[in-house]
What does this fold into?
Amino acid sequence: MIIKEIKTNFKSLLIWLAVISFFMLIVFITYPTLMSPENVELLSQITSVFPEELLKIFNMDIASISSPSGWVKSEGIIMLILATSIYSSLLGFKVIGKEKEQMTIEYLAAKPVSRDRIILSKTLGSLINIIILVVATSAIIIIGLAISNDLDLYIMIMLTLSPLFVNIFIYFLTILISIFINNKNGLAFGIPFAFYFINILALFSEKTNFFKYLTPFTFSDSRYIIENESLNLLSLIIWLASLIVILLTSIYFYRKRELI
It folds into this structure.
């Protein structure tokens, strides 16, 4: 069942990987040309009049976008987290929702396999696809930066793999939601953007900083990685505990709920 789940979503995985990789490669190819000394100076003048809050949202107060690695640390990592989070959300709604829509859930429920095994196998299968997407994208970014001679390997490994934390949280959360709500692509797209908007609110000021406790984007805190050159251990412990709670809750309600 795990292999079947991987194969079922493999085509969409390749499409998402191709689109993200193509965009990243275009950036690495064109960046040296775009960032001429004159353009760098012009960019510096433009960003100097930006509000501090705006610079903070895009990490532009701690990373210069005049270089490829600086772009990855600012706009690039945000785009990567959002794109992979949408993919994870879509997969989360399909784990149970697709079987319900196609009525194949009846067939699965009739087999001599426990509901726990069904949901765990399907969850693991799509989870592997998410990991493949993020790891492959990370490798492409690192290779691109190495070719550009602008690579800090240690930070970039942590930074480009950090989307996994928010991706997996959103993935588990949407699996839980899909037990009660049929597959809705609008909701699958909306959840990552809603969480990102909450994350933006948290960065606006000290008064709104508490919003960071309401969004999984805190688990993939690129600012913390850039400033401390390490992962936030406490955040990872909370992340892991949250996943366990969500997964156990999903299993519990999946056992109790009528599937058809």
Residues 11 and 17 are 10 Å apart (CA to CA).
